[in-house]
């Protein structure tokens, strides 16, 4: 029994002090009960309309949180790479063309200025960001995950999946006679 229902039962069991108060207390209890029921219906409708359960399942069971963390991390890394490019790479390239900064590089056609340097600097920032992400994130993570996972094979007795390095099947307890895939490639 929920708390509001328990309170309602207690209110109904309470005896009124006088006969005249009986009608008023009964009306009050009825109005209160109807208000509670209306509030329950409103809560149900709000949950249904706002899809709270689906939102909860999405946030907790999907990859929403790791993706959000990845976006924040990627944004921070991009800011660092952009700062590196604008501090070191762009001035080095600009020095070759005797410019103060790469963004100053431009050409003019019929009094229209085309700021080519902005595009070139953006291309360098993108290229260096991709290289940094690949060599600083993807390569180390793929090396780490390759150490973590072991190939699986099926048990000959019960047909359940067993790690290739296991000596016995965890389901049926039978010894496994797997040759590791790396050893199979060598022979």
Automatic annotation (TrEMBL):
One Pfam family linked to the record: MscL
One GO cellular component, as annotated: membrane
Cross-referenced InterPro entries: MSC/AndL (IPR037673), MscL_channel (IPR036019)
TM annotation in the entry: 84-102, 122-144
Gene3D superfamilies the UniProt entry points to: Large-conductance mechanosensitive channel, MscL, domain 1 (1.10.1200.120)
Membrane topology: Multi-pass membrane protein
Compartment annotation: Membrane
SUPFAM superfamilies in UniProt: Gated mechanosensitive channel (SSF81330)
GO molecular function, one term: mechanosensitive monoatomic ion channel activity
Main location: membrane
Keywords, comma-separated and alphabetical: Membrane, Transmembrane, Transmembrane helix
Segments of this protein annotated with the region Disordered: 1-23
Protein name as it appears in the record: Uncharacterized protein
Organism lineage: Eukaryota, Viridiplantae, Chlorophyta, Mamiellophyceae, Mamiellales
């Amino acid at each position: 029994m929920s708390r509001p229902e328990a309170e309602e039962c207690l209110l109904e069991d309470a005896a009124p002090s006088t006969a005249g108060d009986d009608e008023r207390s009964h009306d009050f209890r009825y109005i209160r009960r109807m208000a509670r029921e209306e509030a329950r219906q409103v809560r149900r409708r709000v949950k249904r309309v706002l899809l709270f359960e689906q939102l909860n399942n999405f946030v907790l069971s999907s990859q929403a949180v790791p993706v959000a963390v990845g976006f924040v991390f990627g944004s921070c890394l991009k800011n660092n790479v952009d700062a590196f490019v604008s501090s070191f790479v762009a001035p080095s390239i600009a020095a070759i063309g005797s410019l103060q900064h790469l963004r100053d590089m431009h050409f003019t056609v019929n009094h229209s200025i085309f700021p080519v340097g902005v595009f070139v600097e953006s291309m360098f920032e993108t290229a260096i960001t991709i290289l940094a992400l690949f060599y600083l994130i993807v390569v180390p993570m793929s090396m780490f995950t390759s150490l973590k996972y072991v190939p699986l094979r099926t048990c000959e007795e019960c047909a359940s999946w067993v790690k290739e390095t296991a000596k016995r099947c965890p389901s049926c307890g039978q010894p496994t006679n797997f040759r590791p895939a790396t050893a199979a490639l060598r022979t």
